[in-house]
Amino acid sequence: MFDKIRNWRIRRTVARHPIAEPLWRDALQRCAAARRLGASDQATLRVLATLFLESKSLEPTQGLQLDDADRVLLAAHACLPILKLGLDWYDGWHSVIVYPDAFVPRRPKIDAAGVVHETHTVMAGEAWGRGPVILSWAEVLTGGNKPGHNVVVHEMAHKLDMLNGDANGFPPLHRRMDRRVWSRVFSSAWDRLKEEQANGAELPIDPYALESPAEFFAVASEQFFEAPANLRQHLPDVYRQLELFYRQHPF
Ligand SMILES: [Zn+2]
Q1: Phi, psi dihedral angles at 99 (to 5 degrees)
Q2: What is the number of structural domains in the chain?
Q3: Does the residue 191 lie in any domain?
Q4: Ligand 1 center to residue 167 CA distance, Å?
């Protein structure tokens, strides 16, 4: 019954507020990972993007203006990871705050001794457990120019990771996936990359992946959608686990 109501709501939303054809074509033009999808997956992505724009609040800040084409582009990027999972995987949060450029979060951080520090790290994106996703629009636009980068996919991967608690590189796995295999694959890839890094070798993925297991998962997810051939070639086991998790086969 609930499913019927839900499906009906979805159909009504999509019927009332479809993304106009020119806007959708424009988004595909600007989103290489979406362009690579087959026609039926692109149609699904368009429905998800429509529902994403209905259910989330995009909040440009500091004078940034986002027109309809920009909003559709952002939604298309954001829905790539959940193409085969469904929008439910983004339940529990509402806002996407978009800064014009890289931003410095102005918030106090309290250390173990109870001392409050202001953090001054420049950020391209940020995701909070049940709070907003924060993005730099400049990074959204230029991320695609750097092979394997996609700040929107990165932050959405953190959101998926945090569905079962802290961001730790361990999102809720599907029933037929093996948690031990996931851990083994990611930790042995991690060890190998650390070793290569220590030897001064150039890494096949952004070294930022080695900041933490959470960043490894987010950076590998970016690669999975933006440079799948590269990820499959260099980290085939990680690629395979992400295939199982995202239920997609980008390469
Ligand atoms: Zn991150």
Answers
A1: -90, 155
A2: 1
A3: yes
A4: 9
